[in-house]
Amino acid sequence: MLSAILSVLLQATGGAAGLGELGAALGAGIAAIGAGYGIGRIGASALEAIARQPEASGDIRSNMIVSAALIEGVAFFAVIVCVLVLFI
Amino acid sequence: MPTLIQSLFVTLISAVFWFSPVTAQEDETHENSNGTESHTGEEFDAGEFIIEHVLDAYEWHIATVGEKHISVPLPIILYSNYPELHEGKKLHVFMSSKFHHGREDYRGFRISESEDFKGKIVEIDNQGHEIGRPFDISITKTVTGAIVSVIVLFWLLFSAVHTANKNRGKAPSGVQNLLEPVIVFIRDEIAKPSIGEKKYRKFMPPLLTLFFFILLNNLLGLIPIFPFGANVTGNMAVTMVLALFTFFITNIMGNKHYWKEIFNPDVPVWLKFPIPLMPLLEITSMITKPFVLMVRLFANMLAGHMIVTVFLSLIFIFGSLMGPVAGYGVSPISIAFSVFMILLDVLVSFIQAYVFTLLSAIYFGMATAEEH
């Protein structure tokens, strides 16, 4: 395990451009984790609410989709920044 | 406490990392922005393939048979900045087939391969050096895609208008059945709750235009057959213009209360007077909101197209890496995933059009809200 980290770091510091690419890739991964966690929580609370009151499922569903789209927008910000690092 | 079998398993798996060779290599400086070189004509350059398929281009590439590219040429319209090189002529109009897929120069213009202007038209002087970009208003693939979707939209909407006029007082028929529920949905679920009963009618035209334009462009971008399949909304310029529409309408239709809340809100004086902290914050949010609209739509559509292209190019990567049999073996999985991603993208198209329109309606509502 340690030698895996070592090899990644050695390759990364072998050239300055490599470090930027490493940062960009890590950033995109962390953004994905954040988005997944956030939208997971939205889904969980939406399902709980539907279980409590099945008649409101239409309202809850549209609100859930809107909130998910807004949070995904933030995650895409992070991805765009990472892509800019890679290509500019 | 993990069992003996579990510990053994973990040890064996992690042993892969213990015995891998560890060397530091000099970073290869990358000439092109993708960092993958093609050695011979056989090598499949995944980065180039993907980028070509989602970005704009001066011709509409349909297929490549062996060495021959089959593509539809599109008009190129340029205003040169150096008319002395072209006998005083400033305006140049010609078809993109004159560039022969970017391999030849034509009349002092060339499709550049340099770092700064990769893929764009540059002017060249008499020695062949690139001296900068002309004013470029060509009809590129994205523009053609937008024109095609506008033609489809006009066809749908004008036939609905025609049947609606014929059916005054009667039940709807034909295309009306398709469009009326959507328009009623936008009016009752998006416009009225956000803008209010009294003022929503003024804002219905921009909301309807935004919704139908975005939805149709998203959907037509997913059809791979010729006049459709241009990645229009996955282009930052297009989504920026749409977000600018929202920005301008919000600020032009903003009433006195709206502007007062921005420049003179009801907060303690020290937040407004020597350094206008609150107004600066409000202006930042005024600019951020359309920016977020732009990035959300652009990134969602671009990501969808890129993922589909990546899954399909997996077939070719496996094929060139481990022989054609591996390529054939990966094909069913790859195609299944691609179809699934395209279906997901259909859902995302609807959701993104809905969210863009909903947020625009909310901003319009905030701009015309009454004092409470």
What does it look like?
The complex is a heterodimer of chains A (88) and B (372). Chain A is built from three helices and no strands. Chain A is an all-alpha fold and 88 residues long. Chain A has a domain at 36-88: F1F0 ATP synthase subunit C (F1FO ATP Synthase, Up-down Bundle). The longest helix of chain A is centred in the middle third of the chain and has 37 residues, at 16-52. The radius of gyration of chain A is 19 Å and the shape is elongated. The model of chain A has no long low-confidence stretch (mean pLDDT 86). Chain B has nine helices and eight strands. The model of chain B is unreliable at 22-41 (pLDDT under 50). Classes of the chains: A mainly alpha (88), B mainly alpha (372). Chains A and B meet through helix 1, helix 2 and helix 3 of A and helix 1, helix 8 and helix 9 of B.
Q: Could you outline the blueprint of secondary structure elements for this entry?
A:
The complex is a heterodimer of chains A (88) and B (372).
Chain A: H1 2-13, H2 16-52, H3 57-87
Helix pairs in contact in A: 2-3
Chain B: H1 4-18, H2 46-54, E1 59-65, E2 68-73, E3 75-79, E4 91-95, E5 109-111, E6 121-124, E7 130-132, E8 135-136, H3 141-166, H4 175-195, H5 200-220, H6 236-252, H7 256-263, H8 277-322, H9 324-367
Antiparallel strand pairs in B: 1-2, 3-4, 3-8, 5-6, 6-7
Helix pairs in contact in B: 2-8, 3-5, 4-5, 4-9, 5-9, 6-8, 6-9, 8-9
- Amount of helix of chain B: 55-70%
In N-to-C order, the SSE pattern of chain A is: HHH
The CATH topology of the domain at 36-88 in chain A corresponds to F1FO ATP Synthase
Number of domains of chain B: 2
What's the number of extended β-strand segments of chain A?
0
What proportion of the residues of chain A form beta strands (DSSP E)? under 5%
CATH superfamily of the domain at 36-88 in chain A: F1F0 ATP synthase subunit C
In angstroms, what is the radius of gyration of chain A? 19 Å
* Secondary structure: helix percent of chain A: over 70%
CATH structural class of the domain at 36-88 in chain A: Mainly Alpha
Q: What strand order characterises the main sheet of chain B?
A: 4-3-8
Q: In total, how many beta strands of chain B? A: 8
Quaternary structure state of the chains depicted: heterodimer
Largest interface: A-B, 25 and 26 residues
Question: Ends of chain B: how far apart?
Answer: 64 Å
